[in-house]
Amino acid sequence: MSCAKNNETCCDTKSEATEDHIREAVRQHYARVVTSAKEGSGDCCGAGSCFTPNTTDKYAQKLGYDQKDLDNLPERANLGLGCGNPIKAAKLVAGETVLDLGSGAGFDAFIACRAVGPTGLVIGVDMTDEMITKANANALKSGYKNVDFRLGQIEDLPVDNGSVDVIISNCVINLVPNKRKAFQESYRVLKSGGRLAISDVVTNVELPESVRKDLALYAGCLAGATVVSDLEEFLKSAGFIDIKITPKDESREFIKDWAPGMRLEEFVISAHIEARKP
């Protein structure tokens, strides 16, 4: 089965969910999100197949963002793709180097830019060309000089060893097929004493196979939710310490809108995830 419009991979829910299939599904879906003529549209195959991003300030405030941060964002930097606010947990300091995993159109990266100031640097990595193009256009138009958007995959970061003070990410690790490798790469690029502060979706139970193999649900930030115990093991085996995973029960209210009628909010929940490199 494929989409009638463009034969898009993310809609081919019967395809084998290999790592390559997942990456291509995610890449195609988010390319459509950022290039859609309809602002904030995340349409894939129709209602219930792919979630529709919510780009309103009200939704961002529910995730924990302050209005003053939202007021200063470039146009359409907020694509409504987050599930929390990693910036608050990161406690950024002026002069730090920050890495944003899955930086999209630059939403969290631009907020981080203001936090670290002109002596700091924010590196945004995204695997979607269209997102990098949009983020760079936003940075140029708004005069951000302390940000560097790079095309690349989270499992193979285009970032030097031990060069980053803080890693942030917002509802992106769930989209990565090889999450163990993603955390190994995160550990590699962090400085000694560096910290990880991300928001993502997690689950306490293994999701049904029918969900895990649905590429539309994977691209929609649901099928790739990590079991909490597995997430802890990935972080520990990578070398992280001081691991803290804090589920946000209130997130079920907006997650239920991502796949209406499927009741996946009973299994999937947003969480703050923090850890430190010794």
Automatic annotation (TrEMBL):
Report which residue ranges the record marks as coiled coil: none
Q: What is its EC number?
A: 2.1.1.137
Entry keyword annotation includes S-adenosyl-L-methionine: yes
The entry lists its GO molecular-function terms as: arsenite methyltransferase activity
Task: Tell me which Pfam families the record gives.
Answer: Methyltransf_31
Q: Which family does it belong to?
A: Belongs to the methyltransferase superfamily. Arsenite methyltransferase family.
Q: What is this protein called?
A: Arsenite methyltransferase
**Which species does this protein come from?**
Oppiella nova
